[in-house]
Automatic annotation (TrEMBL):
<feature type="transmembrane region" description="Helical">
    <location>
        <begin position="12"/>
        <end position="33"/>
    </location>
</feature>
<feature type="compositionally biased region" description="Acidic residues">
    <location>
        <begin position="379"/>
        <end position="398"/>
    </location>
</feature>
<feature type="transmembrane region" description="Helical">
    <location>
        <begin position="536"/>
        <end position="553"/>
    </location>
</feature>
<feature type="transmembrane region" description="Helical">
    <location>
        <begin position="113"/>
        <end position="133"/>
    </location>
</feature>
<feature type="transmembrane region" description="Helical">
    <location>
        <begin position="433"/>
        <end position="453"/>
    </location>
</feature>
<feature type="region of interest" description="Disordered">
    <location>
        <begin position="360"/>
        <end position="407"/>
    </location>
</feature>
<dbReference type="GO" id="GO:0005886">
    <property type="term" value="C:plasma membrane"/>
</dbReference>
<keyword id="KW-1133">Transmembrane helix</keyword>
<feature type="transmembrane region" description="Helical">
    <location>
        <begin position="484"/>
        <end position="501"/>
    </location>
</feature>
<keyword id="KW-0812">Transmembrane</keyword>
<feature type="domain" description="Integral membrane bound transporter">
    <location>
        <begin position="420"/>
        <end position="545"/>
    </location>
</feature>
<keyword id="KW-1003">Cell membrane</keyword>
<feature type="transmembrane region" description="Helical">
    <location>
        <begin position="89"/>
        <end position="106"/>
    </location>
</feature>
<dbReference type="InterPro" id="IPR049453">
    <property type="entry name" value="Memb_transporter_dom"/>
</dbReference>
<comment type="similarity">
    <text>Belongs to the YccS/YhfK family.</text>
</comment>
<keyword id="KW-0472">Membrane</keyword>
<feature type="transmembrane region" description="Helical">
    <location>
        <begin position="460"/>
        <end position="478"/>
    </location>
</feature>
Length: 741
């Protein structure tokens, strides 16, 4: 059960965020309840505790403390201005717009600027929500101060979270998700034998497991700098995580291929809706299938069993048997495709061994077989090479002026908020601020008009459902103050726990919570909640209008920019891997591959408006999904090439092959040509055609002897990469022409 929880919430980040916020609010309510403050101030304290907790997102505890300390005077100034200006309509509205602009512009200064901007805006909103008056300011100062103190106690005393602890939980999540992926691969052995419909479900499990493992790897990448002991440890862990991810994904592909009489395209693992390859079942006998199932279960056991829980010789015997499949003489008698599965099993076992050493430290070597000893020697040589390498990063220049995303967003949200204030005042002179809040929120973490439209739609749907829940709960709770506060705490936890999963669910819990707060303030009525829906719709509409009219960033433009970024990074990784594999100088290819993965994640998020079910353009939706799936396929093969290239310096059995330079040149050229066409459709760059790289795998076509199966594997990855890159030309509308060279 713990593994399932760790896998569903990597690093327990959502659980911690929800519990910490609830704890801060509960402490604040307890302190203020003992002091006997009125209900309106209890509500203000609860809201202040919530914002002072969730606004701070820095990873280092010292930085969090500084931001929290700076946030208190910002909050006190904000509530003072909100209270004093609430009676001066024009001046108050103008200041609110200026405050919104500054809060959004503050995102330029990183996590601290973002946090202080959030605190300033939300506390100003708090003063409007509780209808604060100047005479109540001294009491509000005390309430907000108590809320910040309770937030600090929850963060630094009761629910402490260190970067190292978060990284450790993320590693546990990676291990749990890797175990789940192997379990899905075991299901694949029998998928479709009795129920053809079950085969599609198993493939979806396999696809989801692969994507979730990749997500965990990216989350670890984002925490390595702060959570690792030193830079060398960070690089080692990064490499071991990458090895395990690549080996497990390759094992899944080999299993898919073994199920079919034909080669399985890597796209099967990345394109939603793709079906299992024809064939129905593994083309091997029951005995071999049983051996394969047994060894996959053994691999899963190696992944999930920490060193401290491994006793006796059984686990070492399992490990030795799996690593033995790296030797040709230990492979079972079976078809070539099935033997490839066992080879992949051996490589996955080696990656898991490296991961266990990186996560759990040195292990007992007394029962090692020669195959296991060789694997350890390879890992030790890699560790030494990683520790001696140096990382050289170049910072990309930041856009200036109105081209800077934070400046553009600040101008857009200021204009949208002005429209929301004007329209909100027409709907209600008392609660116009709901429209402004919605307009503000739809701009957070969005960068294009399409993203804002989808976010506004989701918020509206969640709000409508939350209004219904709020009406029901208000009738049930009535005037039971502490029961209502208990439900508020429950909804706050649910809000933060579901926020990364579903913006609609988060909006539902927010609205239901607000219905309870209105009940506590004795301002509840069904018409108030209906007004909230109207104000929400107005705020979302104002946000979309501002994004579409003021310095607009069209979804097509943003996706094209991100697509070019992905292609540039794909070319960089592929070129670096080919140079190194053909005898060129070494480079930090794992970091480049992770940059590619992050760029691809950004593109995937930006295409959500195109792939969302509400999108009426079905052909564009299918095209966007297909392009992203092809790019994920390209990224997988580029990662695999980079991982193989980094083995050259430490493995005497792997040699550089100069023929690979020519094989990869055309691929890199075509990637760059596609990027040029996306940037400028009038580009004259040509997509080159040529002989299949697979022909280099045919016997008798090579003038020099091959360097064993490593060169075969590299050529196969190059062939798949070439096919995927060529496949991009059709959905992107690029004409392929034969090369004249």
């Amino acid at each position: 059960m713990w593994d399932r929880l760790a896998a569903s919430d990597p690093g327990l980040l959502r659980l911690t965020a929800g519990l910490r916020t609830v704890t801060a609010i509960a402490l604040t309510l307890a302190v203020l309840g003992v002091l006997g403050v009125p209900v309106a101030q209890l509500v203000a304290g609860a809201m202040a505790a919530m914002v002072s907790t969730f606004a701070i997102q820095e990873k280092q505890r010292s930085q969090q403390a500084v931001t929290l300390a700076l946030g208190l005077p910002v909050a006190l100034a904000s509530v003072s201005l909100g209270t004093l200006l609430s009676q001066r309509v024009v001046v108050g509205d103008l200041f609110f717009v200026v405050l919104i602009f500054c809060a959004v512009y503050g995102r330029r200064f990183g996590d601290r600027g973002t946090a202080l901007g959030l605190i300033g805006f939300q506390v100003y909103f708090l003063s409007l929500f509780v209808h604060a008056v100047p005479s109540a300011l001294p009491a509000l100062y005390g309430v907000i101060t108590a809320a910040f103190v309770c937030s600090a106690a929850a963060r630094f005393v009761l629910l402490r979270q260190t970067p190292a602890g978060t990284l450790d939980r993320l590693r546990r999540a990676f291990r749990a998700r890797l175990g789940q992926l192997i379990a899905a691969q075991i299901e694949l052995l029998d998928a479709g034998r009795e129920d053809p419909d079950a085969a599609a479900k198993v493939l979806e499990h396999l696809r989801t497991g692969t994507a979730r493992l990749h997500e965990s790897a990216l989350m670890i990448q984002g925490r390595l700098e702060d959570g690792a002991v030193d830079e060398a440890t960070a690089r080692l862990l990064q490499r071991r995580i990458a090895d395990a991810e690549i080996a497990s994904e390759r094992l899944g592909l080999l299993l898919l291929t073994a199920r079919s009489a034909e080669r399985t395209d890597t796209l099967t693992l990345h394109l939603p809706g793709a079906s299992l390859p024809p064939g129905g079942e593994l083309p091997i006998g029951d005995e071999a299938t049983a051996v394969l199932r047994r060894d996959l279960e053994a691999l899963r056991l190696l992944v999930l069993r920490p060193v401290g829980e491994a006793s006796g010789t059984a686990l070492s015997q399992v490990r030795n048997r799996l690593l033995g499949y790296r030797e040709e003489e230990n492979l079972p008698k079976a078809s070539p495709a099935v033997q490839d599965v066992f080879r992949g099993l051996g490589e996955a076992a080696r990656a898991v061994l490296g991961l266990r050493i990186a996560l759990d430290g040195p292990q007992d070597e007394s029962d090692d077989t020669p195959a296991t000893a060789r694997s350890r020697e390879e890992l030790d040589a890699e560790d030494a090479a990683i520790e001696s390498s140096e990382e050289d990063e170049a910072e990309e220049p930041e856009p200036a002026g109105l081209q800077r995303p934070t400046t553009r967003a600040a101008v857009q949200v200021a204009v949208g908020s002005s429209l929301a204030i004007a329209g909100g005042e027409l709907l209600s002179s008392q609660r116009w601020y709901w429209a402004v809040l919605t307009c503000w929120i739809v701009f957070i973490n969005t960068a294009s008009t399409g993203e804002i439209l989808v976010k506004g739609y989701r918020r509206l749907v969640g709000t409508v459902l939350g209004v219904v829940a709020g009406i029901v709960l208000a009738g049930l709770v009535g005037q039971h103050t502490w029961t209502a506060f208990a439900l508020v705490l429950l909804f706050v936890f649910a809000m933060f726990y579901t926020a990364p999963l579903s913006y609609t669910l988060m909006s539902f819990f927010v609205t239901a919570m607000l219905g309870l707060l209105y009940t506590l303030l004795n301002t509840y009525s069904a018409s108030v909640l209906v007004l909230r829906v109207e104000e929400t719709a107005l705020g979302a509409a104002c946000g979309v209008i501002a994004a579409a009219v003021v310095l607009p960033v069209r979804t097509d433009r943003r996706t094209n920019d991100l697509l070019v970024d992905v292609l540039d990074k794909l070319a960089d990784v592929s070129r670096g891997a080919m140079d190194q594999l053909s005898g060129g100088p070494s480079a930090d290819l794992v970091d480049r591959a992770r940059d590619l993965d992050q760029a691809l994640a950004d593109l995937r998020a930006a295409t959500q408006p195109l792939t969302h079910p509400i999108s009426p353009l079905r052909s564009r939706r299918d095209t966007a999904r297909y392009v992203v799936a092809l790019l994920e396929t390209c990224a997988y093969h580029a990662r695999s090439l980079a991982a193989t290239a980094e083995l050259l310096a430490t493995h005497p059995s792997i040699a550089a092959d100069p023929r690979l330079r020519g094989a990869g040149r055309r691929i890199v050229h075509n990637i760059e040509a596609i990027a040029a066409h996306v940037t400028d459709p009038r580009s004259t760059e040509r997509i080159e055609s040529g002989p299949s790289i697979a022909s280099m795998l045919e016997p008798g076509t090579l003038r020099t002897p091959r360097y064993g199966r490593v060169t075969d594997r590299v050529l196969r990855h190059l062939q798949r990469l070439d096919e995927a890159v060529s496949g991009l030309t059709r959905p992107l509308g690029i004409t392929r022409e034969p090369s004249r060279k």
